[in-house]
Design a protein that fits this description.
The structure is a homodimer. By secondary structure, chain A is α/β, with parallel strands linked by helices. Chain A contains 13 helices and seven strands. A seven-stranded mixed β-sheet of chain A has the order 1-7-6-5-2-3-4, with helices on both faces. In chain A, β5, α12 and β6 form a beta-alpha-beta unit. Chains A and B meet through α1 and α2 of A and α1 and α2 of B.
Chain lengths: 288, 288
């Protein structure tokens, strides 16, 4: 998926968010935002959003000299999500269709995305849960249900910290023994890494690997050989979030994308309104 | 009022909006956004938001070689607002307190602000009207009522095109014979100029002058001598919108500011939530 000029405004906002996370010094914040703008004004914008975001956030980490600007935010989001788990797990246990309920909750967790918003609080997450439980999904439920019933191996590409606790609920329903969870290979935005997988206890119940890349998406060609092998070999691939969608959709892969439409660029690209909850494959490129 | 780094993200978004208004050529749009970002990365950010916005929009007009990127948008907003006037005028005629009703409608029109949003449609305006008729104001109603009853001369600093049709309703209630309406001296953003004052028929009922400046606010020292004289001599000054607030508040002037809080920077500055409708004087600087 090609990026839009709208993505640039988002990158400038992300650079300000990150600047504020790493320093309280206004002059230093200004320097970071200026440097990112200068860099953006000089670099090609012909990449997909995750590729440019990867470069922007590398630049941000270089300028700020902070290896993981979002570390504290991610820890807070993991803790917040973990606090919700007992209540959500009870909801799944009481549901007529536990897999559907866990899938809905997993998509609800996709609201924890610092690429889209400068702050995500518990109120936002609770609103997202209500939305996920009541609003329809656009997608291929029965196909997803059948594929997940038949699959011997499921590769689950996680998206963000905090959200990964919600993913745990779905993985518990899918059957952790056949699932491999993939996280990013290094910090970028608030995307989940091994640190976050450990924070929500995923390695205790399933296999977790990192993809070897610091892109906020899955750029297969730069992922580790192990990830590439597993991606090709898995009976089923589930990819959470916009970043994985932006990097993997329209390339002929049999991937179930599970995400909320959270920005106008994606909304235009898939031809669906903001807020839409999507569970479907996009082997060929959508509209744009 | 000092600007925030948040204003920078807004300027980048405005540059994209303006780029899309002046050309459909994606490469040209990209060039405009790049050039504005480079310019922003190299210039001092220590000004008030209207001063920097003035410079950014001069740069935008220079790069795009279009003297008034928002001309078509402004014409559309004027026409949209004029269409609403008969209905709104009837509402004022039927109101127990016509001045209060006209003031509420004037603040409702302040939603037509392309500095804040990339698009404003009739639905937004109707929602803003409903909000203005039902939500409380923060302010000094009785002082405003007394001042407007006593004033022999009222200087009314207009804000945006479209909105200026709503201002006409309030000016009709204030008594057009003692009002002088001030518009911007040259195009900037979707701010009202003499063209817009004529479009809504203001010169037929009252005196309209331009302030001699292309800032999206009122930077007194660079306004025309006539404006400066009238500002000093008027019994009462009413200033619409955030731009006039940003440039005139906290400087010891007796100005009634009438605006909606539409951005987090202003919300923090005045210590009131987004969406708040304000009618009050800020002789001294608010919180920030």
């Amino acid at each position: 998926m090609k990026m839009s000029l709208d993505c640039v405004t988002c990158f400038v906002r992300q650079s300000l968010d990150a600047a504020r996370l790493v320093t309280h010094d206004l002059a230093a914040q200004e320097r970071i935002v200026r440097d990112v703008m200068r860099w953006l004004s000089e670099h090609g914008l012909e990449h997909s959003p995750p590729v440019l975001a990867q470069l922007v956030h590398r630049k941000l980490r270089e300028i700020s000299q902070v290896g993981d600007p979002y570390a504290a935010v991610k820890a807070r989001h993991n803790a917040m999500a973990l606090d919700l788990l007992p209540e959500l797990r009870a909801q799944i246990a009481a549901a007529a269709d536990p897999l559907a309920m866990a899938t809905r909750l997993a998509i609800a967790g996709n609201v924890i995305d610092m690429g889209m918003k400068s702050m995500v609080e518990e109120d936002d997450v609770r609103a997202s849960i209500r939305h996920a439980l009541t609003e329809p999904f656009v997608g291929e439920w029965e196909y997803y249900r059948a594929a997940s019933a038949a699959a011997k191996s499921i590769l689950y590409l996680a998206d963000n910290a905090g959200e990964i606790a919600f993913d745990r609920l779905l993985i518990e329903q899918l059957g952790p023994e056949r699932v491999t969870v993939v996280v990013r290979g290094a910090p970028v935005l608030n995307d989940a890494t091994l640190v976050d997988a450990h924070a929500v206890g995923l390695p205790d119940i399933t296999t977790v690997i990192d993809n070897g890349s610091d892109a906020p998406g899955t750029l297969l060609t730069e992922c580790s050989p192990e990830l590439q092998h597993q991606f090709a070999a898995a009976d089923m691939v589930i990819a959470k979030g916009q970043g994985n969608f932006e990097s993997l959709s329209g390339r002929g892969h049999d991937v179930f994308f599970l995400f909320k439409v959270k920005c106008p660029v994606i909304a235009t690209h898939v031809g669906l309104p903001m807020g839409t909850q999507i569970l479907r494959q996009y082997r060929q490129a959508p509209i744009a």
